[in-house]
Specification:
The chain is an alpha/beta fold and about 375 residues long. Helix content is about 20%, strand content about 30%. The protein is built from 7 helices and 21 strands. The strands form 5 sheets. Strands 14-15-17-16-18-21-19-20 form an 8-stranded mixed sheet, with helices on both faces.
């Protein structure tokens, strides 16, 4: 008692063999309860006296944006109709839940995100897991619908949760250097893409694109990134591997023996680096493969789906050209081995790419895999 207070008690005259039915509402939503036979319209009239043995059916109607969560009391439960036989005084509670207000959970730990979704009168929908080099394992990469959207109570909020970084040693070079791949995105996606930053050791500009891709948030494609298939060539600054073999002449399709600067190796797949790529492609079966080279500054019409190659060229601002179809090339073998897929060469300029250009090529790489 911190001040003067007044309380009113309401008494209802109940004739003999008549019983009162009281309805109350609970929850953070809103709605009305009506009865048959008439008498309850709660809203405003939440108490009515019925003759003994009257069978009263209560119906709950949620307001817009709310939902009916269920009955309690009077022998009622669930969310259907509530039937009460008036052989004694009865009380029934109808619970209404408020609208789902989608919380912002991107960047939150998975458990905290789930609690926040439920606290917003929403429910956790589909949870998809994706590899990410940017978002810590167990944290939310993205959500749908967007934050602050108001939906019907109990609406589903889908979450994509990070599985962290996946680094795979695919094999080793001639001198034993690891050939590493990074898997980014959704491993369950039917869309698979392979990106190789460098196959010729003196053409390294694509490695920066591969590194950028490792840090991107990708959720609707299974993206495999090999920064350098030829680590020995990168270390030495040479086109070929430690045996002097041009790995892009060492694949089985239309292979022929060549010596010199474009040494094809003594036989198809003679080199450990080529065999590593061969096994990965056969296992992964990517719909799109992109191989970065230098120094022609064009996108090659390499024999896959020209619409994909043209789209990439448009996105990065390079011309699309039909270059020589080299014997024993990896893109030639891939397009021959995986009909319907698109493996193509991107010839970068001679110089190192600016940060802005690296970002542009990385975005285009993801875009053509999901178009």
């Amino acid at each position: 008692m911190n001040g003067a207070e007044s309380v009113t008690a309401i008494f209802v005259l109940v004739p003999p063999n008549n019983y009162p039915l009281a309805v109350s509402k609970a929850g953070n939503g809103s709605g009305t309860v009506s009865s048959s036979p008439a008498g309850i319209d709660c809203g405003t009239t939440c108490l009515h006296v019925y003759p003994s043995a009257t069978e009263v059916v209560l119906t709950a109607t949620p307001s817009s944006g709310s939902s009916f969560a269920g009955w309690s009391g009077g022998g009622c439960s669930g969310i259907g109709g509530c039937e009460v036989t008036m052989n004694a005084a009865e009380s029934v509670t109808a619970t209404f839940e408020g609208p789902c207000v989608v919380p912002k959970v991107t960047g939150e730990a998975s458990k905290a995100a789930k609690r926040a979704v439920e606290a917003g009168n929403c429910r956790v929908g589909t949870i998809t897991h994706a590899f990410s080099g940017k978002v810590k394992k167990g944290y939310v990469i993205s959500q749908s619908p967007r934050p602050h959207k108001r939906l019907e109570s109990g609406a589903a909020v889908a979450l994509i949760v990070s599985k962290g970084t996946r680094k795979v040693v695919l094999g080793r070079s001639v001198v034993g250097r690891p050939i590493v791949a990074y898997e980014v995105g959704n491993p369950a996606s039917p869309r698979r893409e392979l990106v190789v930053g460098c196959i010729h050791g003196n053409e390294t500009a694509g490695i920066a694109i591969a590194r950028r891709l490792e840090q991107m948030t990708v959720t609707n494609v299974d993206l495999w990134i090999v920064p350098a298939l030829n680590p020995d060539g990168v270390a030495a600054g040479t086109r070929g591997n430690a045996h002097g073999v041009d790995l892009n002449r060492n694949f089985p399709y239309r292979w022929r023996l060549v010596s010199g600067a474009y040494d094809s190796g003594s036989r198809p797949l003679s080199e450990p680096e080529s065999r590593t790529a061969y096994r990965l492609i056969r296992r992964l079966r990517p719909q799109v493969s992109i191989w970065f080279h230098q120094h022609l500054d064009v996108v090659d019409e390499s024999g896959g789906q020209i619409a994909v190659e043209r789209r990439f060229a448009e996105l990065v601002g390079l011309p699309l050209r039909h270059l020589t179809r080299e014997r024993g090339s990896v893109v030639g073998w891939t397009n021959h081995t995986l009909p319907g897929s698109t493996s193509f060469v991107v010839e970068l300029p001679a110089h190192a790419l600016s940060e802005r250009a690296v970002a542009r090529f990385a975005r285009a790489t993801v875009d053509v895999a999901t178009d």
